[in-house]
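To fix ideas, we quote verbatim one protein's residues and fold tokens.
>
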Amino acid sequence: MTRERLSLANLGSVPASMRPKVDPRSIGVGIVHLGIGAFHRAHQASFTEDALAATPGNWGICGVTQRSGAVAAQLLPQDGLYSISERTDAGTRASVVGVVREVVDGSADPAEVVRRIASPEVHLVTLTVTEKGYRRDPRTGTLRWEDPEVEADLAGRDPRSAVGQLVAGIRARRHRGSGPLTVVSCDNLADNGRVLGRLVTDLAERGEDGSATTGWIEEHVRFPSTMVDRIVPATTDADRAAAAGLLGVADHAAVVTEAFRQWVVEDDFAGPRPAWEAAGVLLVGDARPWELAKVRLLNGSHSTLAYLGQLAGSSLVADAIRRPGFEGVVRRLMTVDVEPTLAPLPGLDLAAYEEQLLERFMNRALPHRTAQIAADGSQKLPQRLVGTVSDRRRQGGEPLAALLGIAAWMRFVVDRRDEQGNPLPVDDPLSGAIAERTSETSVAGAVVESLLDWPAVFPPGIAEDHFVRDTLAELLDRLRRNGAEATARHVVDASR
């Protein structure tokens, strides 16, 4: 049977307990969000709706799609409505979210994105565009000026890169007198707010009215750093069917997630904001220690599990963590490799947090795919694993588990086949360059040297560390000869 599609017109047919916490028709737009994928809908949008339920205000969201119009096509016919299904081993709890009030296809109408950012009713721009969406050169910390999208934005076209959209929108705000703006990065970048602020300022300086715009940014725009945490798998047709069964209507934009969520935001705003603290958001003076702990503990463990799982043939995180040796590697990564690199966080019990992470990874009700996590590894590894290795080596430590995660990534992106000989879904913006750098030899030591001496992924000087270089070569060779499980057990045994 074909179900009627979720919309404002049929919202009354949804069970009362699952309807939005605020009337969507009563909310004006005060936030523009760049990158309205599943994570934003399950995280920042969910927090914002809960904040509005506690303290009303015009904090509706204008969601912008970045690379394609697929999400716009899901949300527009539904008046921005979608459901969140929180899944645990005990069952599923579904609810419809109504805080997304507008949706713009940024790839088809980039000028409209700039107009919305420039609107005087908008006080906040938030972003979830993934690490690669910042188009940042890790060697310099600035934009990759040779990036075709950056070049095109600088040449004066309607901007399509996230940083280009921000600069154009801020410039338009200055000309219109629209007032100050707070830009909130919610991506897994170390010190994400300050990184974004520098990228925006760099691009503005090279563009039209460069000095006037950068001066206005310094005076009127804030870039607070954040930490975000919620596991949100890619939605499948089975997920959409399950949501329809709960709601009684079809939801093409449904998202599935875990019950856990966390958001830490620096309390540095240029103007008004939602009462996010009423929804459980932690407002702090410095989010960097929180962000570092999350990226290295959760995301570093996730990436390690994803690459080991992909090599061993586990398509889901919950299956990978149960393979012999894998849980032990994650435990060693967190307690031996990562913990010594972190500053104390008041109120956070690291041991309890790590146990909670393991429980979240084992949640079979949440089908988080290892291929999803494994994508864009060249952009993710510097924050998730390489930083841990560098810091532990400066401390005199031997971060074997973190190095195993990096070696598993190398085997994944270079060999591109799992242990059964099946092709692996390598999805990385540098996949062509990786193939070119490693085309001359398949010998483990030579592969490690060709990648380790690559500033696009690894920091200068790390290739000179004989322990790092030799251990990576040994682990890559073991992964190829003995497989992921045996190599994981070897790393666990070596740490005892």
